[in-house]
Design brief:
Blueprint (H helix, E strand, L loop, with lengths): L1 E9 L13 E6 L11 E5 L8 E5 L2 H8 L10 E5 L9 H6 L2
């Protein structure tokens, strides 16, 4: 699972049957501070995310198919499974050691 920012939506009139009725979004992986890292990728939207949203993305086929509720959709490998409200980052390692 990764954090990502939704940067664009994709419109496709011709697509594999597994993608019919699915919203496809472009997501840019980010670190916990929101800094972009790595290459953008396409993900099927399982939670009604929109451009600008910080999201959780699963990039394993079985998990992605579970998010959209279609285990037979073997072509779907990446899906948005959550919209992030906030990310709390510890100030230093000592904060992490004291956390419950």
């Amino acid at each position: 699972m990764m954090l990502a920012r939704v940067t664009a939506s994709v419109v496709s009139t011709e697509k594999h049957s597994h993608y019919r009725g699915q919203k496809i979004l472009v997501v840019q992986p980010v670190d916990p501070e929101g800094t972009p890292k790595g290459k953008s990728l396409l993900a099927v939207d399982g939670v009604q995310a929109g451009i600008g949203d910080l999201v959780l993305v699963v990039d394993e086929g079985g998990s992605a198919r579970a998010v959209i509720g279609d285990e037979s959709a073997m072509t779907i490998r990446t899906a948005i499974c959550g919209i992030v409200d906030r990310v709390d980052v510890a100030e230093d390692v000592e904060d992490l050691r004291r956390a419950p």
